[in-house]
Amino acid sequence: MPSTVAHSLTSFAVGFVLHALTSTRFSALHVFLLVLHSTNGPDIGSVVEFLLSGIAPKFGTLLMDIVHHPIGYALTAGLAWAWVGTWMSRVDVVFGGQSWRDVRIVSRVGGRQWRRRRGRRRQDDGNDDYGDEYENGDAIGLAEEGGDNNDEEEEQTKDELDDSAGLGSQHLTFLNSWLLCVAGSLLHFRLDTLYEGNGQTPEYRWILSTGYWLPGANDIIYPSVGLAFFFSLSTLITAMLIVHTSLRTTLPLPTRVSALLATSEGRLVVTAGTAMVVAVVYLLFVYSRMAIVPRVPAVGEEADFGVLVFEALTGILPLTLCAWVSR
């Protein structure tokens, strides 16, 4: 099975590419949580099974079956880790400067409100007790000693401090943290499915079972692949030409369609929707051929149905979830 190193390196590569492509909106914390869930998340079940092997082996195996599952992990241990992710997005780590042990976890929440309270207090008694505020855990207020700043400068300084920590200026909601948990879990089982048990995992065998490996498969491969290639590729290319060139403004399209294509978000929706329609139609076609008894090859021996379902769930869906939380 893939080791912890293999899981961590592959998920880190995915997260780092997203970090660069989104101009760090997919922040360092997003990358860390994605790697955490993809690496050690579902494998917590195997650790629990090992610890309970001498006490309650059946119960340990039950927990293993529940936690070491792409959905089971997200609905059990993943919920606790999602809460940890939201907490991590609200704190920072600072060095006090006294000794190497003077490293503290401080809150990121309330920086602007504290500065306003400090201004009011200066008018009241003329004192600025930075030490007390530091003990209360305001890293942002501590970093800005001396002088009154207007709201614009305060907001800019807060963003710069957040960016310098690599965490981004937005706190993670519980939903976004949980979506990262789901994405990491799916990436974990992507590797487990393909590279575990010498290719004899039930999921991998199911993918291959959607193909046709009996004699006669190649008799239909050229006409079937040719037709599928023509209709799918022609549909996608036509959509791309209309949506992403000047044709969208020069063709006599319906008013609602033209209005939708006038925005980048609308063009994104139309492009993704077209690809989704092509995928669904093709999957229905392949599945209908698989349902014929005896089996009739849809596109030769290719296991397209299993491949597309697997790639959609463990390849495209995790990337979509990561893109969603980095908006």
Automatic annotation (TrEMBL):
The keyword Transmembrane helix applies. Residues 116-162 are annotated as: Disordered. Keywords: Membrane, Transmembrane, Transmembrane helix. The chain crosses the membrane at residues 12-36, 220-247, 268-285. Residues 126-136, 145-162 have a biased composition (Acidic residues). PANTHER family: OS04G0465800 PROTEIN (PTHR38543:SF1). This is Uncharacterized protein.
